[in-house]
Amino acid sequence: MVVGAIGERTDVVVIGSGPGGYVAALRAADGGREVILIERDAIGGTCLNVGCIPSKALIEVASFRHRAASQGVPGLVTTVTTDMAGVGEHLASVSAGLREGVGRLLADAGVTVVPGTAHFARRDRLSVAHEDRVRHIDFDQAIVATGSRPTLLEAIPFGERVLDSTGALALRELPESLVVLGAGYIGVELGIAFAKLGSAVTLVEAADSVLPALHPQLRRPVERRLRQLGVTVLVGTRAVRGDADEIVLDNGATLRPTYTVVAVGRRPNGGTCSVEVAGAHVDDQGYITVDEHLVAAPGIYAIGDVTRGPALAHRATRDAERAVGHLLGEPTIAPAAIPEVIFSDPEVMSVGVTLDQAADAGLGVHRFPLGANARARTLGTDLGGVWIVADEAGTVVGVHAVGPHVGELAGEAALAIELAATTQDLALTVHPHPTVSESIAEAAMLARGLPLHIRR
């Protein structure tokens, strides 16, 4: 930095253009502020370019391929070949279309997008390095939305045929065999997708089960489906060292896959922009400490994955709305619940009080099995169900589901909790037939003591 350099001036600067950053920029511009958005890579961040969006597109392609190849549609006889180069082009096209759309929204809102890597030079100034140039931006308020990055394993470095989740989504050939280290939601989603595409997949998980954060009732249908897909699951097992040729496990076994994907979690990027210079605190795990308004230091906000909480795109988006609302002097309300969706097969949706918390608190849990849901049967499955958690007054405090397309139920579930709806409210709400959403009403009827499509 050049001492005394003259900086550009703006009202609000946002660092990072993921689902938190670009929404913060748009909302601040909506509030009449002059906004600069800084992004060192592609607009849309990890989620849009190398995470949520391309991974879900891959999952959809894999599901189509598997149903066709496995004669999974009664009455249809098909042959299928997998062209991974074509799949890759499709994933890139989906991301590119959305990225261009976000770029147009930012332009329409008058947001100035500046490429480069930002660091705080002082409380009210950023230095932004791009190629061989450094520019300085002075601001009134800043919002840090720098996201997260894959966790590394020192004993198994990335390179060649050892990939992170981003590298897995960029593959242009189908691995004959694939080892996925980590069976949390990222590992399970990728493992199922590649198994459906035709790879021989092995999941290696240090905990005692796949999806270890889930209640056993929610993960059992996924475990059953993994067996049906021929996925080898090694739980209570760690990879102690490895390279492109072999992965050595703590039980002495050696795996020699075509590719290895390390999916053991993500780390926050809280310490990557020198926010401590502005007076913020970054803990030893890389999270920026914030108050109830997401303020990290006077005039400095932090949102999304860089703060403690679920590392989810929609949480970052909601954080953006809250942070900008506070910045503009508007009243803001923290959400009552953040929905979580795992795009496994079957999908898993969870919002509000968990089944473990319900058991500890003695709350009522009411389950409707998808085997009794007509839409699930037309989709060829009876795996899963819907669980409603209600308090003594019948107020809905948690909703969980496992089954096809249950991620689409998460919005209704979150709304019910936000509005303190009762099981009677849900039971009396007309749900279209035949849909999986009917299972929410059916579980609510069960909670009222009036089950409909299950035996009494």
Mean pLDDT: 95
Largest sheet: 8 strands, mixed
Rg: 24 Å
CATH architecture grouping of the largest domain:
3-Layer(bba) Sandwich
**What percent of residues are in strands?**
15-25%
Q: Total number of β-strand segments?
A: 23
- Topology-level CATH name of the largest domain: FAD/NAD(P)-binding domain
Residue share in helix = 25-40%
Anisotropy-based shape: globular
CATH superfamily grouping of the largest domain? FAD/NAD(P)-binding domain
Which labels suit this protein?
single chain, 456 residues, alpha/beta, FAD/NAD(P)-binding domain, Enolase-like, domain 1, 3 domains, eight-stranded mixed β-sheet, five-stranded parallel β-sheet, 13 helices, 25% strand, globular
What's the topology here?
Elements: E1 8-15, H1 21-30, E2 35-39, H2 45-50, H3 52-69, H4 84-109, E3 112-115, E4 117-122, E5 125-130, E6 133-144, E7 148-150, E8 162-163, H5 165-169, E9 177-181, H6 185-197, E10 200-205, H7 216-228, E11 232-235, E12 239-242, E13 247-249, E14 254-255, E15 259-262, E16 266-268, E17 295-297, E18 300-302, H8 313-327, E19 340-342, E20 347-352, H9 355-361, E21 364-369, H10 374-378, E22 385-390, E23 396-403, H11 410-418, H12 423-428, H13 438-447
Parallel strand pairs: 1-2, 1-6, 2-3, 6-18, 8-15, 9-10, 9-15, 10-11
Antiparallel strand pairs: 4-5, 5-6, 7-16, 12-13, 13-14, 17-18, 19-20, 20-23, 21-22, 22-23
Helix pairs in contact: 1-4, 1-8, 3-4, 3-6
